[in-house]
Amino acid sequence: IFFRVHAMPKRETKNYTPETAFVEGLIHDPFTFFCVYCSEFAIILDVPLEKLPRRKTDCAFVIPTPETQLHRNNMEEGDCKLLKREKGTERQYRWLCRGCKLVLAYRSTDFKDSGGALYLKEGAVTRNTAINLTALAEKTVNIPECICVTEIGVKVILNVTMGAPVPCTVVDILNKAVLLQVKSSIKKEIIHYLIEKFFATLLGVQETLVGVTVVQETEKESETSLAMQELLEADKEKVLERAVVIRTDIAPRLVLDKLVQSCTHSTKLHTTAATGSSDA
Ligand SMILES: [Zn+2]
C-alpha cells in the first residue's frame, strides 16, 4: 500500500512507507522513523520506541548509547538551548528534521562530542508515513486499518506495552494497531479500566460507552518484517493485544485526529525566529 504524502512546500511529493523503503534497500532495519510533521526520513533505531526507556521530565524516549543504537541519522544539527529545570538549568543540543526543521531530538553534549544519551522527543517521529500532521491537515486522509466501524461502534486495535512515565500514552499509530503504553506500576487488572478512561477523556464520551476486549490470538501478518515479528514473539507477554470499542456514532476520522493530537501534543515547529527557552 502506498500512501500519498504531501511534504512541505518546495519539496517533492513522496510515495513511500517504511516497508517500501526497506524493500528498496534504502533501509536495512524495520525500526525506521519519519518526522511526524512532514514525513521526512529521520532515523533508524535498533529497537521500536516502546522498548526504549522514558525520561520523566518531558517523557522523551531515551537512546542510552546512540553510537550503537542509531543505525542511521538523517537529522541535522540545530541550535543549543538552555532550559530552566527545577534543579537548575539544562543544556540541549537539538537535532532537527531535515525537511521542516521540527525539533526531533536532543543531547546534553555538544554535537562534535561523542558519548551521552540521545533523547527523542515524545510524538516527534512515527513509523507510519500516512500519519503526519501535514497530511492530516487535509480533508481526506487514509484511515488506518486499526480504526474501523463495526455494528456497535468504532473499534480501535491496540498494542499495549508497559514503561510509560504517565499512566497511559499513545506512542505511535501504525496501520494495524495503535501503540499504547501504560505505566509499569499499573496493575494488570486495571489496565482495561485505564484504557477505557483514557479513550473516554480523549474523545469526550461517557466511560460507560467505552469497552476494552482481548483480541483473539490469531495468525497475524507482520506489518514490518520477520525481525519485528520475532521480537514481538519474544516479548509476547509484554505486548497486550486489545481492542477498544466506542459505542457511539463517532466518526473514525475524529478518533484518528484525537489520537494523533494526543500522540503529538508536545511537538511544535521550530523556527529560527523563535527566541527564549520556554519551549521545553
Ligand atoms: Zn519534518
TrEMBL record:
InterPro entries: STEEP1_dom, UPF0235. Residues 31-129 form the STEEP1 domain. Transmembrane segments: none annotated. It comes from the Eukaryota. Pfam families: STEEP1 (PF25809). Coiled coil: none annotated. PANTHER family: OS07G0295200 PROTEIN (PTHR47525). This is STEEP1 domain-containing protein.
